[in-house]
Amino acid sequence: VVSHHISNTLEPVWNEQHELPDYEQGDSLSFKIFDYDRGSTADLLGRAILACRSFDREGGFEGELKLLDSGKGSKARLKVKVEVLPPLLPDATPVSEPGSRLKVVILSAKGLRAADWSLMGAGKSDPFCTCEVQGKPELKVETRHISKTLEPVWDEEHELSVFQRGDCLEFKVFDYDRGSAADSLGRATLSDRVFDREGGFEGELRLLEAGKGSQATLTVRIEVLPPLLEAAPPISEIGSRLQVVVISAEGLRAADWSLIGEGKSDPFCVCQVKGKPGTKFETKFISKTLSPVWNEQHAIDEFDRDDDLEFEVYDHDRGSAADLLGKAVLLSGIFDRDGGFEGELKLLECGKGKTAKLKVRVSVLPPIFPYAPPISEPGSRLGITVLSAAGLRAADWSLRGGGKSDPFCVVQLQGKPTSKIQTRYIAKTLDPEWNEEHEIADYDYGDSLELSVFDHDLGSGADLLGKYLLPCTAFDRNGGFDSELKLKECGKDHNATLRVRVEVLSAALLPKAPPVSVAGSRLRVCIRSARGLSVADFGLTGGKSDPLCVCTIRGKPDFNFQTRHIPKTL
User: Fold this and answer.
1) Other Cβ atoms closer than 10 A to 539
2) Beta bridge partners of 37
3) Residues in Cβ contact with 456 at an 8 Å cutoff, skipping those fewer than 6 apart
4) Cα(370)–Cα(190) distance, rounded to whole angstroms?
5) CA distance 286 to 292
């Protein structure tokens, strides 16, 4: 809270009463006194801290606090009175349950400060209000703005589709300014203990940071809603997949305006498992509509029980960043059940005053590979044979005949970039055959394999031709994995495949033997030779490399050495 300033005095008397609504036992109070300077940074005149034990008691605290940082030799004091008030509402049994939602009605505000000044008459603001779950910015709603008023009445009803017991709500009121950042007019926080109860909450919230001496308030109504569906046992298991059908949307805002008729958008939808960007897919965009129908079916292979789904709808803009048209979260408890889920999701951040919806169908599919006990042990290695690919898209076009690509394949353990191996590229083909054997060390059970196929371009970045994330349950088993994989992100209307063989190898290169090292032991390492290296330096008469070898004790980068380089050899 901030008091008003008093001009031209060293002994100000404010006598202002403020309320801090969210006090918890153990909280201390910090006081700071500043010199107000219009148009420049305020100068600190002193500060003090009041520990909770001084005021969290019968009768509270009233007295003087010695100010620190108040100037050499200063004996400045601040006089305050602090008392603990009872809660606005007595304790009550929460009514929320897993999957509950919130109905948020933002009614009105009053006593707002004027952010826009006028030469004719008193200044006004163009207020709008946002509400979000504290610490979860993806769960946010926003009202329309109302022009030229300090007492706006919105009376807008919104829904937050995800609420978990313990979530607090954060309200912020802003002044709308076209083409520039919105100015804050105040904020308030509402603890779940106030609204997670029979009957919910309806009342005024005192706005903090609303302007010096301001008594601005915000009136809201909050109600906990039951889950969309009754609780049901999950049907997912290790290795389960998802089938996601993005059906349609309606009520979207117009992102592209037109001089002729109403504006439209070119919507497309992005979906991914929350926190797993490798599972992301997107639909095609549909031109000039606010009610797109996609009816696109996609598969997500990396799904674990309790994983939620994120949906985002964007407006496609050629040559510039896509504009967000709305977002929604679908909790796993809603679709991880017999029959899955089919229905509409209310989109958040879909535009002021808009009520947009997204219709989807989500089903849990059984694993491609039935569960089998893993055979790996700590330190196991992977033997990987990259065999071939088929049906790749043409990344390089030609005026003579159809286009081709120069494909190569990259494989690595997810989240372990140092494990990366790469095949050679094969020129001018859409059906390459590599038949290359590689080995990856440092495999741990739970590691997935990222397989990506690229088009080689000399002197420019490689173009992605397709990718696949292979879970460990597919290969960490007796017999390993040997099959074709349908590549994702391989181009519209392409059904590209990649054939690989993966097997788990024993942890040691040699049979187990007892260690011989003792405290203070050293290592003698002899680097003998290498073969089959890739070409790093290209010339008119073939390519070569100038190889050197670096050896490091893993995890100890200071303990390393390197060989001399040998010119022009593989």
Assistant:
1) 9
2) none
3) 406, 407, 408, 425, 462
4) 47
5) 6
Helix segments in 277-424, DSSP class H: 332-335
**Distance, CA of 452 to CA of 411 (rounded, Å):** 7
Residue 329's DSSP bridge partners are 310
Identify which of 418, 552, 546 has the alpha carbon closest to the alpha carbon of residue 561. Answer: 552
How many angstroms separate the CA atoms of 29 and 2, rounded?
13
Percent with pLDDT over 70 in the chain:
97
Please name the residues in contact with 76: beta carbons below 8 A apart, sequence gap of 6 or more.
33, 45, 46, 66, 67, 70
- The pLDDT of residue 509 is 63
**Considering only CA atoms, which of 143, 133, 136, 128 is closest in space to residue 102?**
133
- What residues contact 426, with CB distance under 8 A and at least 6 apart? 406, 407, 408, 432, 433, 434
pLDDT tens digits along 310-347: 999 999 988 888 999 999 999 898 999 999 999 999 89
**Which pLDDT tens digit goes with each residue over 525-568?**
999 999 888 888 877 777 888 999 999 987 788 888 999 999 99
Asked if residue 399 has pLDDT above 70, the reply is no
Q: How many whole angstroms separate alpha carbon 63 and alpha carbon 78? A: 8
The answer to whether the CB of 453 falls within 8 A of the CB of 392 is yes
Query: For 549, phi and psi rounded to 5 degrees?
Result: -120, 135
**Residues 6+ away with beta carbon under 8 Å from 131:** 104, 106, 140, 141, 142, 158, 160, 169, 170, 171, 220
**Dist. CA 300–CA 137, nearest whole Å:** 25
Condensed to tens digits (0 to 9), the pLDDT of residues 378-390 reads 889 999 999 999 9
In this predicted structure, the answer to whether residue 72 has a pLDDT above a threshold of 90 is no
How far is the C-alpha of 449 from the C-alpha of 316, rounded, in Å? 32
Helix (H, G, I), strand (E, B), or coil: what is residue 474? helix
- Sort 431 into a burial class: Cβ within 10 Å, 0-12 / 13-18 / 19+: middle
Helix (H) or strand (E) holding 193: helix 192-195
Q: Which residues pair with 48 in a beta bridge?
A: 31
Cα torsion 91, 92, 96, 97 to 10°: value is: 100
Query: What's the alpha-carbon Rg for the chain, to the nearest Å?
Result: 32
Question: Is the Cβ–Cβ distance between 491 and 282 less than 8 Å?
Answer: no
Give the amino acid at 363.
S
CB contact at 8 A, 157 and 104: yes
Q: Using pLDDT thresholds of 50, 70 and 90, give the confidence band for residue 184.
A: very high
pTM value? 0.63
State the pLDDT confidence band at 197, using cuts at 50, 70 and 90. very high
Average pLDDT, the chain: 90
Q: Give Cα 84 distance to the centre of its chain.
A: 38
Instruction: Please state which of the ranges 178-182, 210-214, 467-471, 473-477 shows the lowest mean pLDDT.
Output: 210-214
- Round to whole Å and give the CA distance between 555 and 551: 12
